[in-house]
Amino acid sequence: MNWSALQGLISGVNKYSTAFGRVWLSIVFIFRIMVFVVAAEKVWGDDQKDFKCNTAQPGCHNVCYDHFFPVSHIRLWALQLIFVTCPSFLVMMHVQYREERERKNRLKYGEDVKRLYLNTGKKRGGLWWTYVLTLVFKMAVDATFVYLLYHIYEGYDFPSLIKCSQAPCPNLVDCFISRPTEKRIFTLFMVISSLVCIILCLIETIYLVGKRCVKIGSRMQSSRKMQMTASMMNVRNPNMLVLEPLSDKRPNKEAVSPAPSYSVAMSKT
């Protein structure tokens, strides 16, 4: 594994995450990926080799093992970690797409052109939706794999003795799992870390949605205040010119008397 490349990817994702996203990324990298790489192979490497049944019937050992362990825990957790971590890189790809658009816009219209984005890493518009949808997807993936682990293995407990009656076993045989206590502890650790990641993603989603709602509410409130201020200024200003209809300013023909003629005016003098 190239740890320098992985560190570069994680630092890039961490740059555009919130505080809750950074905590989530630390838990995934330290308590899930590192523990999986270091301890998973040692804990589950001997599960099939040391799975013993008290019979020498050919095929009975393999059939009983496949019945109780239909999917390897290592492969199931590997798929889970891949599906959980990949959506985080979509945010970084979206930011790089914005930066590329900004670069092409400057090349086309010059360096003094108005910027398309004030901050390419700011979670607004499409980037906000991308970030929120990745959180929902990560929660759904973790919850699905936790349920699959419970459904496939009928819980998170590993008994020392298993009764098996699958064909071609001649009768009910006893089978034994190697190191069941260690496997139980490791499985519970992975399940609890997955649940913690689900809670962190849920808190981050509520935080982002609540922050957006507060921002929209403050904008609506400020616009209402501006409208109320403008209306109050119109009412309090007494020197405001009020335009009346032209029909009201027309002179009344009956009220206005005609001007006297020139001869009448001269006779009066």
From TrEMBL:
Any one of the GO CC terms = connexin complex
The protein's topology relative to the membrane is:
Multi-pass membrane protein
Residue stretches spanning the membrane: 21-40, 77-97, 128-150, 185-210
The alphabetized UniProt keywords are:
Cell junction, Cell membrane, Gap junction, Membrane, Transmembrane, Transmembrane helix
User: Where does the UniProt annotation locate this protein?
Assistant: Cell junction, Gap junction; Cell membrane
Q: Which SMART domains match?
A: CNX (SM00037), Connexin_CCC (SM01089)
Q: Which residues lie in coiled coils?
A: none
Where does the record place the region Disordered? 250-269
On subunit structure and binding partners, the annotation says: A connexon is composed of a hexamer of connexins.
Q: What name appears for this protein in its UniProt entry?
A: Gap junction protein
Organism for this UniProt entry: Clupea harengus
- List the lineage, top down: Eukaryota, Metazoa, Chordata, Craniata, Vertebrata
